[in-house]
Each structure stands twice: as C-alpha cells, then as structure tokens.
Amino acid sequence: MLYIWNLLTKEVVLLGELVLKLFITDTMFDFLTNADIYLTTFWYIAMPVSLIFLAQAALTFLGAADSEIHTDTDFGHVDSPMELFTLRNLINFLLGFSWGGICFYSTIQNKTLLVIASLTVGVIFVTLFFYIIQQIKKLEQNNTFDYQNVIGQEADVYLRIPETQKGKGKISVSYKGTIHELDAVSDNETIATGDKVLILDLLPDQVLLVKPLE
After folding, report:
1. 96: left (phi over 0), alpha (psi -120 to 50) or beta
2. Cα 51 from chain centre
3. Hey, is 146 helix, strand or coil?
4. How buried is 161 (Cβ within 10 angstroms: 0-12 exposed, 13-18 middle, 19+ buried)?
5. What is the pLDDT of residues 56-97, one digit of tens each?
6. What is the pLDDT of residues 154-210, one digit of tens each?
7. Which helix H or strand E contains 88, and what residues bound it?
8. Structural domains of the chain in order of their starting residue, each with its CATH number
C-alpha cells in the first residue's frame, strides 16, 4: 500500500509538470525551471492537486460523492491504518504539503525544517478535512432523522418541561452516536432539567410525549 501511495505521488508530480507547461506563462515556467528542486517540486505538486481538490469539493457539496464520503472518509469506522491511504486523503495531504512548502519557502531556509513544516501542514489538512466530512455526515443524519426511532428510549431533560402540556421543554436523546435536542411535553407533572424520562409517543408538530422514569 505504501508503494502505491509513493507511486501515486510521483504520478501527481508528472501531471503537475504537464499542467504547468500547458497553463502557465513562459516567465513563470522559466522561473520554476531555474528554481531549486524543492520549490519546483512544491509547485509541480500544488497545481494538479489543487485542480483535483476543487473538483472533489464540488462533487462532495453537490452530493455526487456520497458513496465516497461513507467509505474513504469515515474516520469513526477506520478498521485498519491502511484505510487511511485513500486517493481523497492523498490529495488532501499533498494539497497541504505543497502549498505549505510554497508559503514557508522564503521564511524557512533550512530545507529539512521546510520539509518537516510542509509535512506537518499536510497532516493538518488531512485531519481538518476528516473533521469537515464528519460534520457533513452529522448534518445529513439530522436532516433524515425519524422521530419514530426514539420512541421507547430514555432521554435527559435539557430544558424544563411544564405540567399537563402547558408548554414545551426540550430533551436530549442519543441515536446512532448523535445527540438530538427535541421538543417534548408531559401529560402530568412538571419535569425538571436533568431528570430522566421515557419517550412515549410522537405528537403533531414533531413534539414528543414523555414521562418521568420511576
């Protein structure tokens, strides 16, 4: 798997050379030709990776990459370290690595430290996009949440529930690893914040009927 990762990285560099030759000006190409190997490599990686990243981001937010979200980027269900070596994570890493190297090139003179800093930025990018995808997945779960699934479950009172349905309170209930804050009413006594309740039924306007746990 590491061999494949290294091979993909080399292919990205070669693709970067082609992109630069096709799209950049002669002046910039001469600049990169005369630059040292570090800066040239950073630019050769940054150009194609940026284009691929933009395409991936567009597909993700348009909903066309839902299946990949549930496989390549499910941080909570990584069964082995090798599952981290996906194309999406490679692109995210190289994006941070290359642009980090370009940004730090003029300020960090020691090349070893420059590479370390660039690698660190790459790891930060992978972690950051893991977090972003997780938030997107949670939002999708909230949008498709079915109130019927929590009937019969226990919940915590988040906001005091008035007696005999004189007003609504709020409960927090965990479902499939996500905490949901939902409106709730009581048929009998007032239920204080922090008390445990049992969810009995779903009323109109997505309000849950609850009772205190004995």
Report:
1. alpha
2. 19
3. coil
4. buried
5. 777 766 654 444 444 343 434 443 333 456 778 888 899 999
6. 999 988 999 888 888 999 998 877 788 889 999 888 999 889 999 999 998 889 999
7. helix 87-104
8. 2-143 (no CATH), 147-212 (2.40.50.140)
* Cα separation of the two ends of the chain: 55
pTM: 0.47
| d(C-alpha 128, C-alpha 56), whole Å | 15
Contact 128, 121 (CB under 8 A): no
List the beta strands (DSSP E) in the chain. 154-159, 169-175, 178-186, 196-203, 207-212
Cβ neighbour number for residue 137 with a 10 Å cutoff: 18
Question: What's the number of CA atoms in the CB half-sphere (13 Å) around residue 37?
Answer: 2
CA distance 81 to 102: 29
CA-wise closest residue to 208 among 163, 169, 174, 178: 169
